[in-house]
Amino acid sequence: MRFDEAYSGNVFIKSHPNYEESTAVLYGMPMDWTVSYRPGSRFGPTRIREVSIGLEEYSPYLDRELEEVKYFDAGDIPLPFGNPQKSLDMIEEYVGKVLEDGKFPLGMGGEHLVSWGVFQAMYKKYPNLAIIHMDAHTDLRDDYEGEALSHSTPIKKVANLIGPTNVYSFGIRSGMKEEFQWAKEVGMHISKFEVLEPLKEILPTLAGRPVYVTIDIDVLDPAHAPGTGTVDAGGITSKELLASIHEIARSEVQVVGADLVEVAPIYDPSEQTANTASKLIREMILGWVK
Q: How far is the CA of 55 from the CAs of 8, 188, 199, 275, 282, in angstroms?
């Protein structure tokens, strides 16, 4: 896939036509090869782009317009169907090139395992990296039914890579007892059920550090985002998630990249989930790309 060539199909609203002139790169990771419940998140990036046409370009939350940020929609990485390891290698290489070119990578999934490829590229660039993780699930398994490459494992993998005390999870409400016990034993931060208030407490401790933010759409309650692979009752509202994005934007942390994953449009004929994701992407661009 070329970096200097615009996506041949739909692009996210107000994307800049030139890669070289852009500060940030929006890209898709259409993979759902390892999901344990419902597939379909590989169609998420395309639909998020398509529904963005219904967005206003102005954010009343941040008092910024998309035309103030030059970001390039590079389309989807052409991942090989059914091959998770090669897909992860391609994602790592792709994001590495974006970082080498001095640009902010903003990814759209795809299942959450895609973030593991991104994490590896980010850590090579930023050895003192911290991760902010918003999700319904811990994603701290070593494997799922014997398979180490699973969407239930990326946070355990990155915790082992960068050190568990550098990983901060919020909104967690599901996971095996052993996952919660492991996190407690190694000093990894997990905020159960809530996001905004515990995030406010943590952000000052990360001031000045490079931070990567990964958001699984299922951190939202299914009432707000039914279109996802593993729905889980008891989540936060879309209002709280937007407020959390804005809290990060107002903080002193250095956001160096981000992703939004697990949007599966087929399970939401109302398109509420895709439209919510599209608005979240707009706020991430306007809030985190300086």
A: 21, 37, 27, 8, 9
Domain 24-288 has CATH 3.40.800.10: yes
Phi, psi of 264 (to 5 degrees): -120, 90
Q: Is the CA virtual torsion 236, 57, 109, 246 positive or negative?
A: negative
Tokens of 26: 């929006």
Question: Amino acid identity of 175?
Answer: G
Residue list for the binding site for Mn(2+): 112, 135, 137, 139, 216, 218
Binding residue ranges: 112, 135, 137, 139, 216, 218
The pLDDT of residue 63: 98
pLDDT digits (tens, 9 = 90+) for 132-162: 999 999 999 999 988 899 999 999 999 999 9
- pLDDT per residue over 14-36, tens digit each? 999 999 999 999 999 999 999 99
Q: Are 230 and 135 in contact (CB under 8 A)?
A: no
pLDDT per residue over 94-128, tens digit each?
A: 999 999 999 999 999 999 999 999 999 999 999 99
Let me know if 2 is exposed, middle or buried by CB neighbors in 10 A (0-12, 13-18, 19+): exposed
Contacts of 90 (CB under 8 A, 6+ apart): 77, 79, 80, 117
* Domain extent listing, the chain: 24-288
Three-state secondary structure call for residue 261: strand
β-bridge mates for residue 179, sequence order: none
Q: Is 10 helix (H, G, I), strand (E, B) or coil?
A: coil
